[in-house]
Amino acid sequence: MLTTAAALPATDPSPIETPTPVETPTPAVMTPTEAEAAAAQLAPRLFDQAAATDVEGGFPTQEFGWLHAAGLLTAALPASLGGAGLHAPAATLPLLRVLQHVGRGNLAVGRVFEGHTNALLLIQQLATAAQVAGYAADARAGRLFGVWNTENPADGVHLEDLPNGRYRLRGAKTFASGAGQLARPLITGALPHGQGWQLFVLPADAQPPALDRSFWQPLGMRATASFRADLTGLEIGPEDLIGPPNAYYQQPAFSGGAIRFAAVQLGGAEAVFDETRDFLRSLGRTDDPYQRQRLGEMAILLESGRQWLRGAAENAARPSAATPEGAEATVAYANMMRTAIETISLEMLRLAERCVGARGLLRPQPFERLHRDLTHYLRQPAPDGALADVGRFVLEGKTF
Fold first, then answer.
1. Is the CB of residue 148 less than 8 Å from the CB of residue 269?
2. Span 161-172, pLDDT tens digits
3. Which residues form the Acyl-CoA dehydrogenase/oxidase N-terminal domain (predicted)?
4. Which of 165, 183, 340, 381 is within CB 3.0–4.6 Å of 143 for a Cys-Cys bond?
5. Left if phi > 0, otherwise alpha if psi is -120 to 50, otherwise beta: which for 200?
6. How far apart are CA 127 and CA 145, in angstroms?
């Protein structure tokens, strides 16, 4: 059942709808290629359902059940843990294509799924073997992960020492995508005594944060449930801490991960292209030379985005990425790629508007939703700084 913000109190310590792991057998271990094929097959189904979940306060719970049944919630795990091996640098291109297909189906699902994938990758990178095994079991059971990092400086998350070695939490996160639905959000918080920033997993199904749903009144991406989540009074233990202090900000993983959200964005741009083409076909406008010209431009943009995905994957898979010089190059390339995908997506939207006109922007046509969702999702942090970093890199005579 979908839940709207109007039907709920603005602040509520309980989840919107307590996520219940989907009771399906553990999917057979997939190869990266099979994971990509599963995502491609699921994309049209996600697209057909997207309009139904496009409400503030809603969440695509059913769609994540489909992802779980398809084996995609564990795809970023190694085969030994029931995954498809998309965690490996050599599998970066299949990973990006999986994200692109999910974004093509529904950008709101793609946003939360990318956060789930990001959390699993960070846990494998930083956690102990026992922690990785435990959280992999959670993923196999259908529990959702995510990363909550954004906060207001005045009331950000802090960990406070308790006499028994545990920590009491104080403060809140904003843009907490999947709030009320994620069972295992991966969160950053300030350690006591200026010891730095610490990643930890909150067992949110047992200790749900208080949610301010009034925070999320967005232009697009309504169904991501990106509320304000207040963690004040909740407790975690040493077993919930992931990695050493400040590990979350290590490069190239921190900035280099931008290639994943850019892949989801490209999926949204591909959906715009597909629907524009189908709309013109339905009107019999395929012989119009100006429409053909615009579709030609859109086809070039889409293929350019696909080439950027290939380049980003090749860059991330190079052995030199593990060196300081290679890490710097990986970050610079990721910043180029995310900037290029943003430009491609914005131009795709402009051309689509010209193609479909005012008639095409009326519901139940999907363009109005696609336009809102993609425009909103393109607003990622520090775009100017990302581009300036590329300029600095090349001005210093460095190469990729």
1. no
2. 999 999 999 999
3. 41-136
4. 183
5. beta
6. 15
Residue type, 110: G
- Which amino acid does the sequence have at 5? A
Report d(CA 287, CA 7) in Å as an integer: 48
Q: What CA–CA distance (Å, rounded) separates 312 from 288? A: 36
pTM for this prediction: 0.92
In tens, the pLDDT along 365-377 reads 999 999 999 999 9
Residue 191, CB-side half-sphere exposure with 13 Å CA sphere? 17
Q: Cβ neighbours of residue 98 under 8 Å, at least 6 residues apart?
A: 35, 36, 39, 72, 75, 86
Spatial neighbors of 348 by CB under 8 A, at least 6 apart, are 269, 272, 273, 298, 301, 302
* Structure token pair of residue 304: 């350019």
Place of tokens 């004040």: 232
CA–CA dist 136, 34 (Å, integer):
20
Residues 44, 69: contact at Cβ < 8 Å?
no
CB contact set of 63 (below 8 Å; sequence gap of 6+): 46, 49, 53, 106, 109
Give kind and range of the element (H or E) at residue 33: helix 32-53
Sketch out the chain's domains with CATH numbers: 5-144 (1.10.540.10), 153-248 (2.40.110.10), 253-395 (1.20.140.10)
Please give the Cα distance from 97 to 263 (Å, whole number). 7
Residue 17 pLDDT grade (very low, low, confident, very high; cuts 50, 70, 90): very low
Residues 6+ apart with CB under 8 A from 333: 311, 312, 315, 400
Say yes or no to pLDDT of 24 above 60: no
Residue 127 DSSP label: S
Q: Which helix (H) or strand (E) holds 42?
A: helix 32-53
Encode pLDDT of 319-352 as tens digits.
877 788 889 999 999 999 999 999 999 999 999 9
Cα separation, 241 vs 286, in Å, equals 57
pLDDT confidence tier of residue 69, bands split at 50, 70 and 90: very high
